[in-house]
Amino acid sequence: MSFALPPARARVLSPVLPVVAVVALVGLPLAPGGDGGATPADAASALVVGFCALRLLRQRRRPLSRTAAVILGLPVVGLAVAAVGAASPEAGITGMGRYLQVFVLVPAAVLLLIRDRADFRLLTWSLVALAGWQGAVGVHQYATATGASYQGQPIRAVGTFGPQDIMGMASVVSFGVVCAVGLALGHAPVRQRLIAVCCALALLVPLALSFSRGAWIATAVTCAVQLALAGMRRALRTGAAIAAAGVVLVGGFGVGTALLQERITSITQVTDAPDQSVTDRYTMWAAATGMWREQPLTGVGLKGFPEYRDAHASLALSAASDTEGAGAAFRRQPLLSPHNMYLLVLSEQGLIGLLALAGSWLALLVCALRGLAGARRAGDGRGLDCALVACGLLIWQLTDFAYADIGGPSTVLTALCLGLAAWWALVGGRTEETPAEEAAWARADVRPEGAPAR
Predict the structure, then answer these.
(1) Model pTM?
(2) Is residue 15 part of a domain?
(3) What's the pLDDT at 359?
(4) Alpha-carbon dihedral angle through residues 447, 449, 451, 453, given to the nearest 10 degrees
(5) For residues 180 and 130, is the Cβ–Cβ distance under 8 A?
(6) What are phi and psi of 271, to 5 degrees?
(7) What are the φ/ψ torsions at residue 381 (nearest 5 degrees)?
(8) 450 occurs within a structural domain
(9) Helices first, then strands: H and E counts in the chain
(10) Long-range CB contact pairs, 82-86, < 8 A, 24+
(11) CA angle 68, 74, 80 (to 5 degrees)
(12) Which domain holds residue 140?
């Protein structure tokens, strides 16, 4: 008697399901006014790493290729140096643990748990679903005036993250938009592409209501690049459709408030008439640069920015921002980072850390783009959606890091997205479809425009 699972059952029990569970846990509501710290999703991500390690031991196989080990392990060099230079052993250990979680261990685990492109798409759709949930909560907050405070009104959409992670919902919804656009531009069955298009358009509403200028810029840049990578003809057609939809929504239905229009206009006024949040950001950027000049190679050590901030910041810095709403009481939230990932790494880890971390990201992007070029050369379009999603997530993250850094409950999603991109860049872009995927394509008879029938 055989106890082997049938193929359909084996597909249901995909090893990527624990990663999907982490995505689901990110959607859980957080306690109002929480001070941060580890979340259920963070704990689950640690379990995913442990599950991956046990699976590798059981299968007795080599975990990573030499290229993957070098690219994913490169950030460890700068982290080790910066941890030694930290103000205290505790700061060095906790800081290094957080960086390893986000940029090394969880991405490597996701890469190893994804078996094929079907698993990749499953995880991609789970990100779209999470974005839909968070976006629905955010729209409800705006409509009922139960969101975070924005210019004295409780209308800012923050989802379940609350005002303590004001960028959380914006990041999650942006990931959903990027994933949906990548899926829509691929060559999956028409019904799936239509669903992806509808999801992308629907998610634009909560993204707008997040009032997050950085997320808007990163999403616009990423979607434009995705359209260009998918083909210029499709980019022009899609761009025309988006412009028409925008005219209908804004002109015909009056979507958009004076506050939203003011926020959009403020993007072009960051140098002429910056508001206090922009002034604080410029001041903290200058402080981070000053720290780097003192320790150009190794920085001031992990978690050292808050300690050295006041010594390098000008009097223009307000030192804290006001947060309230979405179930949380008023509080002054200290500004403990420069809100720029590159400058944060430069100030705390120096040139060694920045070159190691940014070098890892750029290597992943180059490999992902090579895989995308290979998918386009294949002629049948299979894998193009995965390539566009992977490249899109990387481009969004690298763009957003110019306005934000890690921190908060949504940070674990950054690790998952890097893992998705790493799988395509280092594994998926170099492999063919599995037999099960070949059969699915044959049943759907999906092929790009102009491709011969199979």
Answers:
(1) 0.87
(2) no
(3) 94
(4) 50
(5) no
(6) -110, -35
(7) 80, -5
(8) no
(9) 19, 4
(10) 82/298, 82/299, 82/301, 82/302, 82/348, 82/349, 82/350, 82/353, 83/301, 83/302, 84/301, 85/295, 85/298, 85/299, 85/300, 85/301, 85/302, 85/304, 86/301, 86/302, 86/303, 86/304
(11) 140
(12) 43-272+334-431
Contact 133, 27 (CB under 8 A): yes
Confidence of residue 19 (pLDDT cuts 50, 70, 90): very high
- Residue 448 is assigned to a structural domain of this protein: no
Burial of 265 (0-12, 13-18, 19+ CB in 10 A): exposed
Describe the strand order of the beta sheet including 148-150 as a list of residue ranges: 153-156, 148-150, 320-325, 328-334
Backbone conformation region of residue 153, classed left if phi is above 0, alpha if psi is from -120 to 50, else beta: beta
Phi-psi group of 319: left, alpha or beta (phi > 0 → left; psi -120 to 50 → alpha; rest → beta): left
Asked, for residue 451, whether it belongs to a domain, the answer is no
Q: 3-state DSSP call for residue 411?
A: helix
CA distance linking residue 68 with residue 431, whole number of Å: 15
Q: Which residue has the tokens 């689950």?
A: 44
Q: Quick check: 439 pLDDT over 70?
A: no
The three-class DSSP label of residue 31 is coil
Two structure tokens written together for 31: 């306690």
How far from each other are the two terminal CA atoms of the chain, in whole angstroms? 39
| Total domains, the chain | 1
Please give the C-alpha separations between residue 180 and each of 97, 158, 226, 306, 429, in angstroms, as whole numbers. 32, 21, 11, 37, 19
In contact, 305 and 352? CB cutoff 8 Å: no
pLDDT grade, residue 383 (50/70/90)? confident
Which residues, including other chains, have CB under 8 Å from residue 162's CB and lie 6 or more apart? 30, 32, 33, 34, 148, 326, 327, 328
